[in-house]
TrEMBL record:
Residues 121-143 are annotated as: Disordered. Gene3D superfamilies: 1.20.5.110, Tetratricopeptide repeat domain (1.25.40.10). The keyword Nucleotide-binding does not apply. The gene is cpoB. It is found in: Periplasm. PROSITE patterns: TPR. It comes from Parendozoicomonas haliclonae. This is Cell division coordinator CpoB. Mediates coordination of peptidoglycan synthesis and outer membrane constriction during cell division. Residues 122-135 have a biased composition (Low complexity). Belongs to the CpoB family. Residues 1-21 form the signal peptide. The keyword Cell division applies. GO terms for biological process: FtsZ-dependent cytokinesis; protein trimerization.
Length: 273
């Protein structure tokens, strides 16, 4: 009797433990029917496990913001490139305009010289003071500063001296320019004006050498037509009529649309008349 009671107690204890264990486990039931009457009174927990979406939304927003920033930076870079290109073109245009102005002035004076304006000027005679000075003193004051003055300025100063009829100083400046800036912007022009100055001074052999050097050394120079015409003049004044005609005819043939060709044609007419 005692044994049976003990066994019954153990069985009841086991059932109680199982009931407690079962009640602690949540039941996932999304579509089950309501429990029948008389069933266990433990509540049924209907839960659905889902992945959190808030972090995903945050990452997507950051990515979109980053893409917008990149797009904005790309547009700014394109705008800056456009500004740089415009400024580069503006600088190049200004440089070309300055060069064109100098060349135009150079061309006008050349035409005046071709018409005899400079050739008719009185030749400068060295005074006792200037004859005693060393050649370096004839260099323009600005040219004497050496490295402080760039090549273009030296050429422009020398060119201005020609306009002022200070031929000896102009020669010194032009020769200095050709020596110190052999790759300068105006080397062919400087070589040409050496010949013009020597021709104006009546130094025909020097003028012949200057113009010949330009033709052989700078075959693509803008002064090539003028130098060819001037050589015709020089040879005529040297008494070599055959060479004079040769270069005058070359000026007419090789540069038919130039002012030098028209002047050469007139000069030829005088020689042949």
């Amino acid at each position: 009797m005692v044994a049976r009671s003990a066994l019954l107690g153990l069985a009841l204890s086991a059932l109680a433990v199982n009931a407690v264990a079962a009640s602690s486990i949540p039941v996932v039931n999304a579509g089950a029917e309501a429990p029948a009457a008389g069933s266990a009174t433990q509540p049924v927990v209907n839960t659905v496990t889902t992945t959190p979406v808030q972090p995903v939304q945050t990452q997507g927003g950051e990515a979109a913001l980053l893409l917008n920033q990149i797009d904005t930076l790309q547009r700014e870079i394109m705008e800056l490139r456009g500004v740089v290109e415009e400024q580069t073109n503006a600088i190049a245009r200004i440089q070309n305009e300055n060069r064109d102005r100098y060349l135009d002035l150079d061309r006008r004076i050349s035409q005046l010289v071709a018409g005899g304006a400079v050739a008719s000027l009185p030749q400068t005679q060295p005074t006792a003071d200037t004859a005693a000075q060393p050649a370096g003193n004839n260099v323009p004051a600005q040219a004497q500063t050496g490295a402080q003055v760039n090549g273009d300025t030296l050429y422009q100063d020398s060119f201005q001296l020609i306009r002022e009829r200070r031929f000896d100083e102009a020669l010194a400046g032009l020769q200095k320019y050709l020596t110190e800036y052999p790759e300068g912007t105006f080397v062919d022009n400087a070589q040409y004006w050496l010949g013009e100055v020597h021709l104006a001074q009546g130094k025909l052999k020097e003028a012949e050498a200057d113009f010949s050097t330009l033709i052989s050394k700078y075959p693509f120079s803008d002064k090539l037509a003028d130098a060819t015409y001037k050589l015709g003049q020089v040879y005529d004044r040297l008494g070599d009529r055959a060479k004079a005609k040769e270069y005058l005819q070359r000026a007419v043939k090789d540069f038919p649309n130039s002012s030098a060709a028209r002047l050469a044609d007139v000069y030829l007419s005088k020689l042949e008349g």
